[in-house]
Amino acid sequence: MSTEDPTSAPSAAPAACQTRIFLVVVDETEEMTVALHYAARRARSTGGRVALMHCIEPGDFQHWAAVEDLMRQERREEAEQLLQRLARDVVDICGSPRRSICARATRATSCWP
Question: Could you write out the DSSP letters of every residue in the chain?
Answer without folding.
Answer: ---S-TTSPPPPPPHHHH--EEEEE--SSHHHHHHHHHHHHHHHHHT-EEEEEEEEPPPS--S-HHHHHHHHHHHHHHHHHHHHHHHHHHHHHH---EEEEEEE------S--
